[in-house]
Every structure is written in C-alpha cells, then in structure tokens.
Amino acid sequence: MKLHPEEPDEDVLASFNISSPYVFGMMLRITNGISGQIKPELFEKESINIADVASEVDSNLSLYKDHYYFLMSNDKIIVSLPSDSTIKGLQTYLNWLLEPDRGECMFELQPMISKSIPTTKLNEIKAIRIGSATQTQSTSATQTLSFTNITKSILEKLIQDTDTVQEILENNLVQAELRIHFKKKDKDVSREDRERILGSTLAPIADLDGIRFETSKGTFISGEEIQCKERVHITKTPKGYMMEPELKLEMEKFLSKL
C-alpha cells in the first residue's frame, strides 16, 4: 500500500500465519533509494522474513525503513510498536486490504485502557492536559503541537518589552498547555464505554509523555500509565534476530489477560 501517490514509502504485509484463533504477522515499511536492501525477487515470495531483508544489501530498488509484529484475535490486536508510534498505520492498511470485501463497513482500532486503573478513578477524570511538545500521528506523518506563537502573543500583551518576551521564550521560562474538559460525567456510563471514549482520544497521539489526565480530586494519571501495554524480553538468535515463535507466545499470554 503506497502511503501517497507522490511519495515512495509503502507498507507491506511481509508475512502472516493463521493458527486459530490467531493471526500472527509482520508489517514492513519500505521506500525507494539508491542504497536499498530488498531485491524485487523477494516480493514474488509468499512471505518475507526479517532475515531475508537484512541479508539483501546490494539491491538499489527498495529500502527497508522499519518493521513490527502483530497478533490478531477476533476482537483484539497486539502490536510490537514503539511507544512513540500509533496504531493508525495498521488500521489504514487493514481497511485498504479488506476494501473489496468490507463494503461500507470500516474497521477502527483504538488503544485499550490499562485494567490496573480502577473504575472509580476512570470515573473521576474531568480533563486532559496536552503539553506543547506532544506529537500527533496520521497515516504517514507525525506532527508536533506547538503553542509557541500563542504563548508569545499572550506574553506580548502582558509585557510590553519585546526583548523580555524573547528572553522568556528562549529560556523556556513559561510553557503553554492545552486543556480539554469532558462534559459532566454520567454515573451510568459503563467502564467499557468510558474506555472507548478515552481510547479514541489517545488514538492519534504518538507521544504519551506529554499527556496527563486530570481527576476531580486534583490528581493526575499519566498517558504512559493509562495505556494498556506490557514489556517483555525476547531471546535473540545467534545472528541477532528476534525469536518470532517466542514473541508470538508472549503476545498470546498478554492477550489472554485482557
């Protein structure tokens, strides 16, 4: 799937294995380049593994950029994406791949909320605070929210000295923050619905370090804390590749806890 007609980047479902009730696969992000890594013959194979990609270093047609793994069940997907990425790319690819069969239906993937956050605490969330360096991600690009111009405009109205305003900005003495309020909470809203609302809020945000959830009691839940994830250690082969069966097993274990 080409990300844009005028851009060389493409997403490729490099390999997948169906073992009911799971689908385990690997996604590749490739581009064109002078010093590429993937020979065109590889794309004629039914599947591509990461060892094939790493060994093909002499081609000048396709350049490896990134890869990640996923495990899909009937209603959930686990991915090995880094914390500064979102699920939007996989969501777009799946909708593109299934377009001939899905009709007007559209598949939407949302981050899950950690089960370690008590329901009572989720019910207390009244606002989201987004820092000025927070990144949002679309299918092919990452954008950083910047409130610098807004901050400068406000300071110039409060302080008439332009040099002082510039000095404040250069030394990061003030910081702007976007605060989004939720409407008055409905006590009858289920945890599932509240998780869905919070998950849709987190979906386009690539860097959760700049996100804080403010509760009615004046406490905060960090973006990293609220996201459902687990850190695992996977054995590597003598050549340095990740043991995929072990990764799949760890993903299955994590999925069984949800």
Instruction: List the secondary-structure elements in sequence, H or E.
Output: EEHEEHHHEEEHHEHEEHH
Strand order of the largest sheet: 1-2-3-4
Strand % is 15-25%
The helix tally amounts to 9
Please compute the radius of gyration using only Cα atoms: 22 Å
Low-confidence segments, given as residue ranges, are 57-61, 138-145
Terminal residue distance = 31 Å
**What is the mean predicted local confidence, pLDDT?**
76
Main beta-sheet strand count, sense and barrel state:
4 strands, antiparallel
Helical residue percent band = 25-40%
Structural class: alpha+beta
Global morphology:
globular
The number of strands is 10
Your description of this structure?
By secondary structure, the protein is an alpha+beta fold. The chain is 29% helix and 23% strand. The chain has helices at 50-55, 88-97, 99-102, 119-123, 148-158, 162-170, 191-202, 223-226, 244-257, and strands at 10-19, 22-31, 63-72, 77-79, 125-131, 135-137, 142-144, 177-181, 211-215, 220-222. The strands form 3 sheets. It has a 4-stranded antiparallel sheet, covered by helices on one side. A 4-stranded antiparallel sheet has the order 8-5-9-10. It is globular and about 65 Å long. Residues 57-61 and 138-145 have low confidence and may be disordered.
Sequence-ordered SSE layout with sheet pairings:
Blueprint: E1 10-19, E2 22-31, H1 50-55, E3 63-72, E4 77-79, H2 88-97, H3 99-102, H4 119-123, E5 125-131, E6 135-137, E7 142-144, H5 148-158, H6 162-170, E8 177-181, H7 191-202, E9 211-215, E10 220-222, H8 223-226, H9 244-257
Antiparallel strand pairs: 1-2, 2-3, 3-4, 5-8, 5-9, 6-7, 9-10
Helix pairs in contact: 5-6
